[in-house]
Each structure stands twice: as C-alpha cells, then as structure tokens.
Design brief:
This protein has one domain: 60s Ribosomal Protein L30, Chain: A (2-Layer Sandwich). It is 20% helix and 29% strand. The protein is built from two helices and six strands. It has a six-stranded mixed β-sheet, with helices on one face. Strand 4, helix 2 and strand 5 form a beta-alpha-beta unit. The two termini are 23 Å apart.
C-alpha cells in the first residue's frame, strides 16, 4: 500500500524522525501535536492555551492532507496532569462537532518540550467528487 508524507509550515516541524502525518489507505494518521506556535516558536503557559494551539496545529496538518477536523474518527490526548482534564476538555469540545471522534485520554509522566498536552488523530480522507 502506498503512503504519502504530509508536511506543512503551518504546524511545528517534526523534531525527530517522523512525519507530521501519513496518508495511506484512505486515512490520515496524524502525529501528536503540541501547543508550540509554528510562527513564534513560543509555547503558551496554560493547558487551555496549549490545547487550543495543539488543535490549531492538528487542523493545519489535516488541511495539508486535504481533510478537516470533521473527518477525524479517533483522537488521542496525552496530559501530564489529569487534574487538567476539565480545562483541556472545555477547549477540545469547541473544535469538534457532533458526533465527536472516538477518543482516549491518558496521563503521562512527560511530553516533548515540557508541554502539558499533546493530541494525535486519525481521519478519513473525504471522497473526491
């Protein structure tokens, strides 16, 4: 099965040997996005701001793959502190319409760049007409 790498300057560049996303088999597999602003290189302080930026970055990667957040069927959220769950969730729900994608949220001991939240996703490539 062929696979294509997705790359956009509207989201942070990969900081390791991985792609921002891979398109294969009619699906887009998005690597985790953190709250790093790709223009300024800054990371906001609060989990709400980091969640918002991470989801904006995810949206940019999906757009580069020809998709949108509406095409996401599964998301994963990684938090360094599960006490941040309600604040992350309040921002997250602003980005996804019903039916929201399936999702798992897990607490982790650390994330790249010392961020509080990371979000990854799998989306379906829309049929072209």
């Amino acid at each position: 099965m062929p696979k294509d790498s997705v790359r956009t300057s509207r989201a942070p560049a990969a900081i390791g040997p991985y792609s921002q996303a891979i398109v294969a088999g009619g699906q887009v597999f998005c690597s985790g996005q953190v709250g790093l602003d790709p223009e300024s290189g800054q990371i906001p302080e609060t989990v709400e701001e980091q969640t918002r930026q991470a989801l904006m970055n995810l949206k940019a990667v999906l757009r580069a793959a020809g998709c949108s957040l509406d095409d996401v069927v599964r998301a994963g959220v990684f938090l360094t502190d599960m006490a941040d769950f309600p604040r992350m969730n309040a921002v997250y729900e602003q980005f996804f319409r019903s039916p929201a994608p399936a999702r798992s949220t897990v607490a982790v001991s650390g994330l790249p760049l010392g961020v509080k939240v990371e979000v990854d996703a799998i989306a379906l490539v829309p049929a072209r007409t």
